[in-house]
Design goal:
There is one protein chain. It is built from 18 helices and eleven strands. The two termini are about 30 Å apart. With about 425 residues, it is an alpha/beta fold. The strands form three sheets. It has a six-stranded parallel sheet with strand order 3-2-1-4-5-6, with helices on both faces. A three-stranded antiparallel sheet has the order 7-8-9, with helices on one face. Strands 10-11 form a two-stranded antiparallel sheet. Helix content is about 35%, strand content about 15%.
């Protein structure tokens, strides 16, 4: 293990319960976060939620480019940035200059993890690549997120979420039959890759506990999306077929899809399906068609698949007379998997989510109160306390004092030279 590391008990535990009775699961782990936009920040945010001390290292003056992505006001961080950087600390450091790089090298021995998503070769060109930093700290876990990985002919190519979706196969399967490929509305390529990287970092940390040695962690957006797409794509491929777009349907399964509900809104739909005979019978009982229970045709999955328009029409006659939440409740009470198609307003109004404490209202320094969704990972012994996303360089004083022993005068001189 490296020198100059604080004992774990003395290191910052930002998610410690205010009563001091419970400490967050990852308390004592320090992460230097050199990422920007979404794939990297989504990785470090989930680790920060779980208690890691994530120090976000940003360029002086402008910071993470995500701070201004879709910003609605001069000098205010975007909601995009706020949602991806909760529970972190921010310092500024000019890594394009020698002094800034030297300060980062001095911080490395006191970190457990460094994560970056720069274009391939950038940090190596600055003398901050894996080979050099692992010599400074053999226990360092060095994680990289790339669009196409660290090797291979495509490795230098830049990537964002939708590029990852296209490259990993998800886009080819999304859309209506006969229509063109369609990107997913959710950022599977970015946040999906970030979650894969978080798993890799935790695995490397557990192994370090046994060996004392760090290692390199690498996640490709293309390969992470391929992993998400494996169930949708590979069974067809292995059977000798090309996976095709099928909209909201499920291959070989009827009913399975969206059903119009009462109302004229764009999301007045419910999604339901019947995976087995019991669920199909539950649908019939829900819609009052007990006369079809046990019918040789209607009870046959193959017959229903051949007559999908007729089957779906019978169900939609019933759903169209009820709002989507009533449809969900009635179907669920009869054992049928079903959900209203929720938009953001529906989620915010959900008594279910509110009762589970899924939202928090934070006092964001440059915005005031902001309501945000919380951590979906729940550990009984270490509940998450959400903290606002940091302002640019907000923690320069405390971090550089704690890790490097720099005082206010030192920081002022470094700031005057554009180093921090």
């Amino acid at each position: 293990m490296s020198p100059r590391r604080e004992p774990a008990a003395e290191r910052r535990a930002p998610n410690q319960n205010k009563r001091g009775t419970k400490v967050a699961a990852l308390s004592g782990i320090r992460i230097l976060d050199l990422t920007q936009f979404e794939a990297g920040p989504s990785c470090t945010e989930v680790l920060a939620w779980l208690g890691a001390d994530v120090i976000k290292v940003e360029p002086p003056g402008r910071g993470d480019q995500g701070r201004r992505l879709g910003s609605d006001g001069e000098g205010r961080d975007s909601y995009y940035f706020l949602l991806l950087n909760l529970n972190k600390r921010s310092v500024t450091l000019n890594l394009a200059g020698d002094e800034g790089r030297d300060l980062l090298r001095r911080m490395i021995p006191q970190a457990d993890v460094l994560i970056e998503n720069y274009t391939l070769g950038t940090l190596e060109g600055w003398g901050l690549g894996w080979d050099e930093l692992s010599r400074l700290h053999p226990g360092l876990i060095y994680a990289s997120i790339r669009g196409f990985g660290n090797s291979g002919p495509h490795s230098p190519y830049k990537s964002f979420d939708m590029i990852g979706q296209a490259a990993g196969g998800a886009m080819s399967m999304n859309g209506e039959p006969g229509g063109g490929p369609l990107k997913l509305g959710v950022t599977l390529g970015d946040t999906g890759t970030g979650l894969h990287c978080a798993v890799g970092i935790l695995a490397a940390y557990v192994q370090r506990q046994q060996t004392g040695k760090g290692q390199r962690v690498e996640v490709s957006m293309q390969e992470a999306v391929m992993n998400y797409a494996r169930v949708a794509a590979w069974p067809a491929h292995l059977a000798g077929r090309t996976p095709r777009r099928q909209g909201n349907r499920v291959t070989g399964l009827v009913p399975a899809g969206l059903f119009r509900c009462a109302g004229d809104g764009p999301n007045d739909y419910a999604y339901l399906l019947a995976m087995n005979a019991e669920m199909w019978d539950g649908i019939l009982r829900t819609i009052g068609r007990d006369d079809l229970l046990g019918d040789d045709d209607w009870s046959s999955p193959a017959w229903r698949f051949r007559h999908h328009d007729e089957v779906n029409g019978v169900i939609e006659e019933w759903t169209a007379q009820r709002d989507k939440f009533a449809v969900m409740e009635h179907m669920a009470n009869n054992g049928v998997p079903c959900s209203a198609v929720n938009d953001v307003d529906d989620l915010l109004a959900s008594e279910h989510l509110a009762g589970r404490g899924m939202f928090a209202t934070l006092d964001q320094p440059d915005r005031g109160e902001v309501k945000v969704p919380g951590n979906p990972i729940r550990l009984e012994g270490s509940p998450t306390t959400l903290e606002p996303a940091p302002l640019l360089g907000q923690h320069n004083g405390e971090v550089f004092a704690d890790l490097l022993g720099l005082g206010a005068d030192d920081l002022q001189r470094l700031s005057d030279r554009g180093v921090v």
